[in-house]
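Structure, all three chains, one model.
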Amino acid sequence: MEAFLQRIASRLGRDVRTSVERPKWKHAPQHTVFQGYSQDELLDELKKQCTRIHTTLVETTAGRLVDAIDDVIAAHGGGPIVVANDERYEQFGLSSLFTREDVHVWDHTLGRANIEAAERANIGITFSDITLAESGTVVLLNNRDQGRTISFLPKTYVAIIPRSTIVPRMTQAARTIRERGHVPSCINFITGPSNSADIEMNLVVGVHGPVKATYIVITDR
Amino acid sequence: MNVTLFVTCLVDLFHVNVGKATVELLERLGCTIHFPEGQTCCGQPAYNSGYVKEAKEAMKHMIRTFEHAEYIVTPSGSCATMFKEYPHIFQGDGEWEERAQRLADKTYELTQFIVDVLKVEDVGARLEGKATYHTSCHMTRLLGVKDAPFTLLQHVKGLEVVPLPNAHNCCGFGGTFSVKMGPISEQMVDEKIQCIEQVEADYLIGADCGCLMNIGGRIERKGKPIRVMHIAEVLNCR
Amino acid sequence: MALKINMGEFHERVEKGIHNTFMRGAVAGAQERLRTRRLEAAEELGNWEEWRALGEEIRQHTLENLDYYLMQLSENVKKRGGHVFFAQTAEEANDYICRVVASKQAKKIVKSKSMVTEEIHMNAALEKLGCEVIETDLGEYILQVDDHDPPSHIVAPALHKNKEQIRDVFKEKLAYTKTEKPEELALHARHMLRHEYMTADVGITGCNFAIAESGSITLVTNEGNADLVTALPKTQITVMGMERIVPTFEEMEVLVSLLTRSAVGQKLTSYITVLTGPREEGEVDGPEEFHLVIVDNGRSDILGTEFQSVLQCIRCAACVNVCPVYRHIGGHSYGSIYSGPIGAVLSPLLGGYDDYKELPYASTLCAACTEACPVKIPLHELLLKHRQTIVEREGKAPISEKLAMKAFGLGAASSLLYKLGSKIAPTAVNPFTTNDRISKGPGPLKAWTDIREFPAPEKERFRDWLKQRGNE
């Protein structure tokens, strides 16, 4: 390593640097996007963007969330389903999800069986930790109770989005993640379903990951 | 207004009519034309081929030749761009960098000069027919003159100007590229001509003799009924 | 596949490209679509130039302090339980990767798209070890199945192939029975690859941006393949060109925004994934072991030179998508895995002038590339610098050209010589002139007149006319 870095430094005509102050950048256009927007305005932007990323957006209230999820599950052909072991399900009155027979709740003590359940699942459901209005992106800070594969292996991916998680763009998410301190081993920024244009530039939706994506926005939380 | 004309080597030797039109047009707009006899070439052919030393000799000569001008005007976006590049090329070369900067600061491409300095948009020209305009790369991207030619053409009576499809693509001239990479250049100019034909234009208008020699030469070889004109010639039509 | 794609001499490759009608249609179509999308995405922001300026600023700062940020990255990866290897050369990188793979007794490797692994010829090294290496990016997968056809575009590697060709390859190699519909082809690849992800021993990825402050790597895809490559196998190896690094998350997000907008006109691609170290305590997916291989392979030789700015590149291919030369000759003509303007600048630097001396001339210097670059690399100026180097330092220019340019220097720097030369020009070419036109020119004019008419020099020069008229 020393020789490698030494070589870089000498090419740059100086000694190896052991400390560098991150500069204050002269330009900061990223902060002007949706500056000063209210949560409602951000939600409007998110809705607009979803029409461009092959993603269905459903609005509901906390009180009607259970029904909304049931509808989405039914619309996508039902289970099997895989969900994270996330206390927010209970906070949002979704305990009933856990007792459904066709639902696998991620349990890290079961090891690889979780991945196999995800592979078999028709639908994977997680909460969005941060939601980006500009790009229509849900941010998942994964952990041992929320496996990475929940959002990748099933055919359909469903994100539950409390309205309060919506921010203008990736800028705010990046800052939040930096300020949180410990960075999770895997952070996903997911924007709609998997797709590819590798064959004659034709867009094919659903390549390796989910074929369909649905966002359920809880408008009063 | 005192205008010192940098006519460019291509116009001096091959497209004398473009030079004549430029002079008559500017005089009609109230300018007095000066022409330093010592002028040669901006140095681009050598510079773009990697012969910087040789190019710099030509450039120094041009700096000396045009030093006393008030406004330097040239009927070529590409050659104007080259003058504008001089300070960059002489960077760190104290005296020459400064002299190059002074030269660059007073250099204008013809249409840019008419619209931005003379503040004229209608030069009173008339030409019947349908035309399309070739936006040359250096003039648009490097010199940044995008609107002036269109502004002037809009006011030419009798002339319908239609947009050229894929106008952003280079015509394939590129100086020595046109001979070094002949087969590629041929494909590029052929696509350009297809686009011109697509809009059924009677005239192809441009502001750079290099591009026009390339497109025009190919049009002629293929026997297409399209007339190639420099914008100075169009603006000088009454 | 290494940097070099061995396909004959430059001019032969160009001929082949020009005559490949399907490829040219595909490239022109892709260029138009990608260019339009990029412009729309930029337009939408309203202050694109400011974004570019920020992108440039970040990249320049990072390169100027590259040693520091790499050290910081390395320390933070290690803190999170990852391994870091600095590879000066392609051989060192491959040796290390092979050692890791051998120590796991790995047989099957899944891989997501990575230019640097192509550059160092990694797949061949692993195959020699007896491993099966499976590309998972759909475009790369298609090329691999088709006997390792080289990529022709940095972002859309299989751009030169049509769906019928892909169908036939799939039929021959993958027992495919359906039609040439892209959906059906993609679905087949999905099924084939699902199995591979689940059973692979090692996953190998490239790296769009490493983040020094957190010791993370960022992967950008639309397919989600990189996520499966990193979630399922027990060992993950990430290979990065040493310049693909940013200080913190905040710079990463700016560059990702520039990348996805410039590459495909999307605000963000479907999957942006930031991975930090191996899986944590209790996690069941993600790798148990994480190795980061940081590759120099000629990059440090570019640092501190007039070409340093080329290392700002974020591999978006915006320059490729606007290049009028690439448009007609396609990616394979460049003879390098890096095609288009960025390839014409980078390939001679990484692979030497012997193999790539024509590339800097395969440009009209139209500057469309420079205008498109989201991190403001002055690509056309770097092509010029290459030409200058070839003339001055490498002495590789033809003698006839040198003489001509010498004469130019003399002529253009002296009013007298210029006047004399221009005066005798019409007489000199007189034997070749008909109706003021030259159709079959002598010497250097021949290459011009093979394609187009050339105007004969006018008998009365402009300056003579002006003089007669009485102007000063």
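The longest strand of chain A covers residues 156-162.
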